[in-house]
Design a protein that fits this description.
This protein is of the alpha+beta class. 28% of the residues lie in helices and 34% in strands. Strands 2-3-4-5-10-9 form a 6-stranded antiparallel sheet. Strands 12, 13, 14, 15 and 16 form a 5-stranded antiparallel sheet that branches.
């Protein structure tokens, strides 16, 4: 990985490099219910739209704080949007419960993830310390959303096999599509990681599609983020919630991420 390390610093979120922000103090059940409760001091590494990445200054452990914010525009919630559309009380903890459920499902299915544990009451998920490239990996079972706008396609055309895309996370450029060659040229990924991430994306889709079908939901499309460790191994990171997918319910309607989360929570509780 040494050959891309200098460029990667500009194209990745390297967990462990802390920005100079005010510390956050939590009383948490440390190591997710394994040890007695203690007071820990955390600092912000990165503050995103729906989650904040924190580090425990004492141990160096990394946590995600799930926020109540939801993406969308003009008061309409949309998981595909690049802006925060509003806030819903309790959304963060619900999203954490759902992420916990699906990350544990992925691990049982042999898919490596960054998930280490969760403290639902505090809205915190403990995760592996990984380098996270500024990429999103998208899998589509049907045409929908931005794809239809970009390519002048009708909605709900099925893909067999699924259609895979990789986009660069760049709000100013509108999250453009990016190839393996450009990822390597820009130092975002090393040789072979692009293909490995797409393989993991396909496996996640298979598990997710089956599980959601049992909840009477048809998976239309979804996106994941990945990270890699010091050996270059790829893991699924961030979250697995209705914020990353689009589904159709048994009545043929596409619920927004808030309503979908309530449906999922009822199924897994």
């Amino acid at each position: 990985m040494d050959d891309i390390s200098n460029k990667a610093a500009h194209n990745c979120n390297v967990f462990g490099k802390v920005k100079n922000r005010q510390p956050v103090i939590f009383m948490v059940n440390y190591e997710m219910d394994v040890k007695p409760e203690r007071r820990i001091l955390m600092k912000t590494i990165y503050d995103g739209k729906t989650k904040t990445v924190l580090t425990d200054e004492g141990s160096g452990d990394i946590f995600l704080l799930f926020k109540d914010d939801a993406t969308g525009e003009n008061g309409v919630f949309d998981p595909g949007s690049n802006t925060v559309g509003g806030s819903v009380e309790g959304k963060g903890k619900i999203g954490l419960k759902i992420s916990k459920y699906f990350f544990e499902l992925m691990e049982r299915s042999g898919i490596p993830t960054h998930y280490l544990g969760a403290n639902i009451d505090k809205g915190l998920m403990q995760v592996r310390s990984l380098t996270v490239p500024t990429l999103e990996f998208v899998l589509r079972y049907f045409t929908a959303g931005s794809m239809c706008r970009r390519f002048t396609l009708e909605e709900d055309i099925p893909f067999e096999p699924p259609y895979l895309e990789v986009t660069l996370k760049d709000d100013e450029q509108g999250d453009p599509l990016i190839s393996e060659r450009l990822c390597i040229m820009k130092g975002i990924l090393a040789e072979g990681q692009y293909g490995e991430a797409l393989d993991i994306l396909t496996k996640v889709g298979e598990v997710l599609k089956k599980e959601l079908a049992e909840m009477e939901l048809t998976l239309i499309d979804f996106k994941i983020e990945v990270g890699y460790d010091e050996n270059g191994k790829i893991y699924v990171v961030d979250e697995i919630t209705p914020d990353i997918w689009r589904v159709r319910d048994k009545n043929g309607k596409i619920p927004n991420q808030i309503d979908c989360a309530k449906l999922i929570l009822d199924k897994i509780s």
